[in-house]
Write a structure and sequence with these properties.
single chain; Rossmann fold; five-stranded parallel sheet; 5 strands; 8% strand; elongated; binds zinc ion
């Protein structure tokens, strides 16, 4: 997958940084849209054995090992459960003070940095303030507001905004049908999620059901009320699937809107999604959406 397709502006920016060899020692990637893949690409560019103008080839041994998370000088830290524990960060920092195995550079990528415990965050802060030479840190988060302000102020914050068109193109290059690529690019944020959904039977079935349901709802068909419990709930049977259901509904609403300009539905969807975030059940949220749209 080409970073140029999914994050064209950031690609150009970091291409210049890599070519000038002026990488900063600590970045905070926010927004999450291909931020992990981007950090991997930067790491590959630093270690690539056949880099062209300092940019990764993606094919050599080092590039492949880094992509497989099997390269000793590129370390990935992920939360265990709901936090990143202080001993994970301590281990990391002691690693940071050692020199690289393959060369003199080292890269550390920390996912969900908003989940750092406060002692872990403070340990990390020490490194950010007194970095080791040739050591690069990439902190990733989808929730900037949850990241310690002292970390925010000492890192370069780079927003990874969603680029649906570019994502859709990247999916087509993975041999996903064009019509499906557009849908998947709208309802997911990660290549791996999109590929998984593309092969999931429940997703394909669920997509058809949502499409029909949205069409019934916009025709003010009363069946849409019954379908929530009878059809949608059995397929979208956990919180993760239900989040995807909301994305699918938004996607088909938007398609309908182009022809019907039905602003009541969008307003009601917004309300329903808010309730869902506050832990009202999926079924209740959608049934209320139908009631608000049909009978009020
Ligand atoms: Zn390479």
């Amino acid at each position: 997958m080409d970073m140029h397709d999914v994050q064209p502006v950031l690609y150009q920016r970091f291409k210049r940084v890599l070519q000038k060899q002026s990488l900063f020692h600590a970045y905070l990637f926010t927004g999450g849209f291909f931020s992990f893949e981007f950090a991997i690409w930067i790491a590959q560019s630093l270690f690539c054995q056949q880099a062209e103008q300092h940019l990764a080839c993606g094919k050599c041994r080092n590039c492949q090992l880094i992509a497989a998370n099997d390269f000793s000088d590129v370390q990935l830290i992920q939360p265990t459960g709901n936090t990143i524990k202080v001993n994970q960060v301590r281990e990391l920092i002691s690693e940071m003070s050692q020199t690289g195995v393959e060369g003199n550079q080292r890269v550390f990528i920390i996912k969900s940095v908003d989940l750092l415990s406060s002692s872990a965050a403070n340990a990390l802060l020490k490194f950010i303030e007194e970095p080791s030479p040739n050591t690069y840190l990439f902190l990733l988060t989808n929730q900037l507001g949850q990241v310690l302000p002292t970390i925010q102020s000492r890192t370069q914050i780079i927003p990874f905004r969603k680029n649906i068109l570019g994502f859709s193109e990247a999916l087509k290059q993975q041999d996903i049908l064009p019509s499906k690529a557009d849908l998947l690019a709208n309802v997911t944020n990660h290549m791996s999620d999109a590929q998984l959904l593309n092969e999931s039977q429940w997703f394909n079935q669920g997509t058809q059901l949502i499409q029909q349901w949205v069409s019934d709802l916009s025709n003010r068909n009363k069946l849409s009320f019954v379908s929530v419990g009878a059809k949608l709930v059995p397929i979208f049977d956990d919180k993760d699937k239900q989040k995807i259901a909301f994305n699918l509904i938004a996607y088909y609403f938007e398609k309908q809107m182009l022809s019907t300009k039905d602003s009541l539905l969008s307003a009601n969807l917004f309300k329903a999604e808010k309730k869902f975030q506050f832990n009202v059940s999926f079924q209740n949220c959608l049934e209320m959406l139908v009631i608000d749209s049909l009978w009020r």
